[in-house]
Specification:
four-stranded antiparallel sheet; Alpha-Beta Plaits; alpha+beta; 2 helices; single chain; about 80 residues
Length: about 80
């Protein structure tokens, strides 16, 4: 199944706790959409967040974010894992 890295360029008021809660919300609904979110990275200073997921399509990752918390990614890129 493809891997996707989504980028949220600026989430106002971003905190570590808020990102953790959003990730937990994603995990709670991901199975409905055939998605598995693995990890996320964030930068509180800029409000950037990156999420790595395995999904049947980019649209499926977007559907999870929409249902879980409404914070849609600015970009979703299919990626391949390297060494």
């Amino acid at each position: 199944m493809p891997l996707f890295l989504d980028t949220h360029k600026k989430i106002p008021g971003l905190t570590a706790d808020a990102v953790a809660q959003a990730h937990a919300a994603d995990v709670a609904v991901q199975a409905k959409h055939g998605v598995t979110f693995f990890r996320y990275w964030y930068d509180e200073a800029t409000g950037k967040v990156f999420c790595l997921a395995e999904a049947p399509s980019a649209a499926a990752t977007e559907a999870v974010h929409r249902e879980a918390h409404g914070l849609l990614a600015d970009e979703i890129t299919e990626v391949k894992e390297g060494a």
